[in-house]
Amino acid sequence: MKKRGNATKILALVMVLILALGSLAGCGSSSSGNQSTSAEKEGTQESSVSKENSAEASTDSGTAEPVKLTWFVDVPSFSFNSEGWGLDDMTKELTEKFGIEIEFVTAADDSGSQLATLISAEDVPDIITLEGLWDTTSTNLIKQMAESGMLYSYNDLIDQYVPEEEKAGFRADILAWYALADGKTYAYPNYAYSTDDVPEGKGLIPNRCIMVRADMLEQLGNPDMSTPAGFLDACERAMTEIGTYDSLDVIGMQLYEEGNEAVDIVSAYFAVPWETEDGQAYNSWLNGANKETYAFLNEAYRRGLILDANYTDGRDQVKEKIASGRVFALLAAPQDFADSFRTLYENDPNAYYVPVTLRNAAGDDPVLTDISGWGYLQTCISANCKAPEQLIRMISYLVNDEGAIHMNYGWEGEQWEWNEDGTIHVLDEFKEASQEDPNLRKKLGLVCFDLFANNAFLIQFNEPLDLTNEIDLETYHTNDNYLKEEMAIYSHRPAQYKYDPQDERATKYNEESVKSRSYMTIAQAELLTAPTAEAFEAKYTEIQETLPTIYDIDFCLEYTNDALQAGKAQLGVKYFWPPYAEAAGE
Amino acid sequence: MIKTLGVRKKNRRRFNWQIFLMAMAGVLFLAIFAYVPMFGIVIAFKDLDYTMNVMADLQSKPFVGLDNFIKFIQDAQFKTVMTNTLMLGVLELVITFPIPIFFALLLNEIRNNFGRRLVQTCTYFPHFISWVVFGGIVTAFLSTDGGFINSALMGLGLIRSPVQFLSNADYFYAIVIISSVIKGTGWGSVVYVAAIAGVDQEIYDAARVDGANRLQMALRVTLPCIAPTITVLLLLAISGILGSGFDRIYMLQNPLNLTRSEVLDTYIYKVGISQRRFSFTTAVGVFRSIVAVILLEAGNITSKKLTGNGLF
Questions:
Q1: Are A342 and A398 in a shared domain?
Q2: pLDDT at A443
Q3: Is the pLDDT of residue A532 over 90?
Q4: Is residue B1 in some structural domain?
Q5: What is the phi/psi pair of residue B46, to 5°?
Q6: Containing domain of residue A102, as a range?
Q7: Residue B256: closest CA among A545, A544, A259, A513
Q8: Residue B159 domain-assigned?
Q9: Domain edge (last residue) among A409, A443, A461
Q10: Are A382 and A115 in contact (CB under 8 A)?
Q11: In three state form, how does the secondary structure of A518-555 look?
Q12: Residue B241 lies in domain
């Protein structure tokens, strides 16, 4: 009896201990977190000491244990195109050269909440990549982080650690464009077009385009798709006359998931101006400038050319539809669907896309744009970064000629060799091998991350394709650069809004634009899917009337106009809208 | 009373420290995860939107009173968001809440043990699938482009063209409620099954002697016996009326159904957390908690008056 009592007591004690430990587990992890931050601080001190001691710190760090850095990419669609850091030759080489290992963390969704939490918990990752300049939330965040001393400026790091001969890798005009009020640059974009890299008079390849399936177009007898009516008719005929592809129903028009970006794409083809005739910013709703675009997309929906599912699908469903060959006309940036294009082409070499030139009812030329100047994603270096020196040396390598070519093409002699004219010849063996094993480039780590890619620079090394060669032919039909090439004649450098991040109004502008966005997401979807032409008219008028009550339009317009004028002032031009600029003789 | 305590003192230790410690662990848990975070409510009354360092600014920034609450109430989306949240909450209470009770009563009538376990396991199963997956399944089933439901209805000749389940906002409430019923009924009935198991068999025997049939026994014996359990769960459900369950709504949302699918939870996430508007978000959260407390208190008082049972 007594023994049993003891057993119960011991059991009770054990349980209490377990519970107590369990409830303290939360505190435990935070204390270990503190330890790691103090270790980080020591790490930074050490690295700064080692830098002072030896001029060639990078060679030293190659032999030492690599520093692990966390790179947070706040863009859910980003993927690190490798088997994992250190598992392929390219990243192994980077680790050997610069003594750092990188762990990529990609945001789970595009809400930004993950990063917001990390920042407010003072657990800022070493490197942060955010959406580009167009995303005011990201731009404001960078400004705020810079002001609170949470970021290194590129200028300081470059001055301190980058050798003189490598400094030109960071293009001066890009740094200047991204500089904050203190004259320093805290974010560097990828895919930005520096004036140094774009040959005079050469057209840029646009980012997005409208394309249709070449085989179906031929089946329909190459109808004229350059007018809105002709375009819609052709799509309708593809659905009724061709009907099925590989026993699946043909889809007349495919947009991005949830119908995203379709309005932007069509309005570019319809040449909706970026500014008024006297060079001021305007709201395209209030003066109805975008009405033709909306009416076009609504008609396509009403005629059943755009599937209802298009508005509820995710990106994967869109990819699947393209790959299975169901999509006749596609309104998108082809590089986003490169895999689908290849799958389709490999099953049927006649099934590939060609661009079409859609024009507005007045027959104006399209005004297409690249993401030039803006760049794509911006990358910042956190002041917490455990190895700022090694990191900036690595970035410097990536943006300089040697590194950029190496990252893109691989090892000279193994994957490529120089042509006499200065272009790069990708070796046939490598082409064939990568044709057989689509993951080969990934295994080698080529283009494993493009967060510092400079497309404008690399494009000069592309040698002309040999279209008698099957592999080159596939590239020609599925690679976005070749697909979009003929649209370059309509391509222009887009308007460069120069938002001043120091502007006090930025916060209010941000809040107001969230309000308008929340309303517009719903209203635009309802407008595009209006069941009748009358319903469309009614909805359009309703939006025009409601919009001014939702948010402060005048304030936002004034703010954007200031950014527009500041951008023009910096570039020294009077007009952004290419036709106006041409007329003014700019 | 004092006497009995005196008697107990002789047999037992004066102070049951083991039990006390075990209870304290629970108290500690509540203190750390429920009471300490409550200080964060202060954020709602200060202007900490877009702040970089919440802890530091919490001390330095001045109070702004009810500004954040007013901002929320004046927001253009306030009406839509509140309507959707309340509508879904009420529908949940009226439809989703009673179904597990009936289901438990039905389960109780299955005399075959194997059959009952089979049904229970099958109906529990969806509970263990996350909403991310379940939402994907629902979306795929309801798709207009080859989705199972539309294909089946068309195959049966019930409809001519696919029904736009996901893109027509009018269907949204129904989709959420029905999918919640499918996912939650089995799991929700666990508590009631347990309560039914605890009903005294003698009452059934007595009822049988009085000539009651099975339906009468279920309605006149089982149901009244588990009424206290139902009351407690109902009161808890009422207090949760403004919490629509973030996952399921977020998963089923798309631009075409936002007029019906934007609820407090998703609104807080999109406008607040994503935009780093900490104070605004906290204010919305506090607003929701206050409403929940009021509803809970009202429900409790009503329940006590009507049935004599209450939570506290």
A1: no
A2: 86
A3: yes
A4: no
A5: -120, 170
A6: 55-195+373-461
A7: A259
A8: yes
A9: A461
A10: no
A11: HHHHHHHHHHHCCCCHHHHHHHHHHHHHHHHHHCCHHH
A12: 78-275
Cα–Cα dist B234/A61, whole Å:
64
Alpha-carbon span A191 to A133, nearest angstrom: 12
Report the C-alpha gap between A514 and A517 in whole angstroms. Answer: 5
Q: Which of B256, B291, B259, B285 is nearest to B273 (CA)?
A: B285
For Cα atoms A278, A279, A284, give the angle at the middle one, nearest 5 degrees. Answer: 100
Is A281 contained in some domain? Answer: yes
Q: A377 with A423, same domain?
A: yes
Lowest-pLDDT range of A38-42, A414-418, B100-104, B130-134? A38-42
Task: Give the number of other Cβ atoms within 10 Å of residue A214's Cβ.
Answer: 15
CATH for B134: 1.10.3720.10
Q: Tell me, what's the pLDDT at A11?
A: 61
Mind listing the pLDDT tens digit for each residue in A160-203? 999 999 999 999 988 988 888 788 999 999 988 887 787 666 66
Each residue of B134-145: pLDDT tens digit? 998 998 899 888
Give me the number of domains chain A comprises: 2
Distances in Å between the Cα of A123 and the Cα atoms of A24, A33, B51 are 21, 9, 15
Q: What is the pLDDT of residue A61?
A: 44
Q: Is the dihedral of CA B74, B80, B83, B84 positive or negative?
A: negative
CA A350 from centroid of its chain's CA atoms = 30
Reported pTM: 0.78
Point out the least confidently predicted range of A40-44, A143-147, A336-340, A406-410: A40-44
Q: Which residue of A has its CA nearest to B71?
A: A511
Assess if residue B173 is contained within a domain: yes
- Are residues A176 and A61 both part of a single domain? yes
Average pLDDT over residues A506-519: 84
Q: How many domains, in total, are found in chain B?
A: 1
Asked, for residue B296, whether it belongs to a domain, the answer is no
φ/ψ (deg, to 5) at B43: -55, -35
Asked whether residue A80 falls in the same domain as residue A107, the answer is: yes
Q: For residues B145-155, b (16+ Cβ closer than 10 Å) or e, as one string?
A: bebebbeeeee
Confidence of residue A373 (pLDDT cuts 50, 70, 90): low
Tell me: do A273 and A176 sit in the same domain.
no
Contact check, Cβ <8 Å, A120/B51: yes
B54 contacts chain A (CB < 8 A): yes
Residue A571, C-beta contacts closer than 8 angstroms, at least 6 positions apart: A496
Task: Give me the residue from A9, A23, A524 closest to B32, CB to CB.
Answer: A23
Is residue A105 assigned to a domain?
Answer: yes
Q: Same domain, yes or no, for A248 and A235?
A: yes
**Residue A449 pLDDT greater than 80, yes or no:** no
pLDDT confidence bin for A120, thresholds 50/70/90: confident
CA-CA distance, B145 to B15, in Å (whole number)? 69
Q: Is A120–B162 a contact, with Cβ atoms under 8 angstroms apart?
A: no
CA-based nearest residue in chain A for residue B53 = A120
Q: Which of residues 64-93 of B touch A (CB under 8 A)?
A: 75-77
Residues of chain A neighbouring B49 (CB-CB closer than 8 A): 507
Instruction: Return the pLDDT at A326.
Output: 95
In a domain, A32, yes or no: no
A444 shares a domain with A314: no
Q: What is the CATH number of the domain that holds A561?
A: 3.40.190.10
The answer to whether residue A385 is domain-embedded is yes
Same domain, A550 and A578: yes
The verdict on a CB contact (< 8 Å) between B274 and A150 is no
Work out the mean pLDDT of chain A and round it to a whole number: 84
- For residue B26, CA distances in Å to A20, A538, B33 come to 9, 60, 11
